[in-house]
Write a structure and sequence with these properties.
The protein is an alpha/beta fold. It has two domains: 217 residues, Spore Coat Polysaccharide Biosynthesis Protein SpsA, Chain A (Alpha-Beta Complex), CATH 3.90.550.10; 87 residues, Hexapeptide repeat proteins (UDP N-Acetylglucosamine Acyltransferase, domain 1). Helices cover 19% and strands 32% of the residues. The chain contains seven helices and 27 strands. Strands 1, 4, 5, 6, 8, 9, 10, 11 and 12 form a nine-stranded mixed sheet that branches. Strands 14-17-20-23-26-27 form a six-stranded mixed sheet. β4, α2 and β5 form a beta-alpha-beta unit. The model has no long low-confidence stretch (mean pLDDT 91).
Amino acid sequence: MENLKALILSAGLGKRLRPLTNLLAKSAIPFHNKPIIIHILETLKKEGVKNIAINLYYLPHTIKNAIKQIKDQNIIFSHEHKLLGTAGAIKKLEYFFREEKDFLVINGDTLQKIPLKFFWDFHIKEKALATLMVRKNQPPEKYSLIKIDKENNVISIENPHQSLSYYMYCGVIIFSKQILDFIPQNKYSDIFRNIFPILLEKREKIKAFKYEGPWAELGTPYRYFKYSIDNLPNSKNIIEKNVKIHPSAKVIKSIIGKNSFAGKNVIITNSIIWENVEIGHNSLIENCILTHDIYLPPFSIIKNKIIILEKNKLKMYPLK
């Protein structure tokens, strides 16, 4: 798949992920001590995808910093001076995709194992204008519902409701380059709201590729927290090598980023701690997200909170 080109959609404001996105663009937020976008790039690397575009708008430097160590993939950035939407982002990169027959588009806040060869072969065999990777719908909160027929044709895309018989979009699409002809130039345009309704009305071929592997959309703080903790390997901690933890401290089912410190008699349970965090002695941290560069004084007791440092002030938000 070396010649396949991909776009990682990373320009969004990440409003649902606030307050974490007050500090970092959503693709730059660490999952198990590694930025989400690095996980996506590593998935693409395993599948042989080397030519990748990333669109940028909100806190672009945080995404660039997250991937600055990447050397073995060819990455270009598409800076948006105003948000162009998911389809508008593709159109802006028309020069990047025009020479390709087909290309890949991935949401920058989802984690999954993309079975790219099978996905690609299915798309080519079906000669589709677009092929969506879908999975059985979870109890709907926000996901668009994908209705398909017996031949895996997408026949409608609906707003979330309580039906569980539909499929949901996994955040990965393969497009034929003909999609570029349907997207307006220099205008905000969304794939699902603006482009797919036109394609369905014109009865263009949109196919659904069924996926059954692991998947996570980390679009809210609680979803990010829960998926991170629930997917610790063997329910053990993930602690960077240079973290200093006093011998009397206890860390249980937690994630701790580099250059962090836990003092005497500290107890950390079910928590995510980013980089450069210092926790004073005799403190208790339970069910929390502590973002980077935080100092907690001795005898701090914090439960079910998100703590961030903004403009040199420590702020606490409920984790919900």
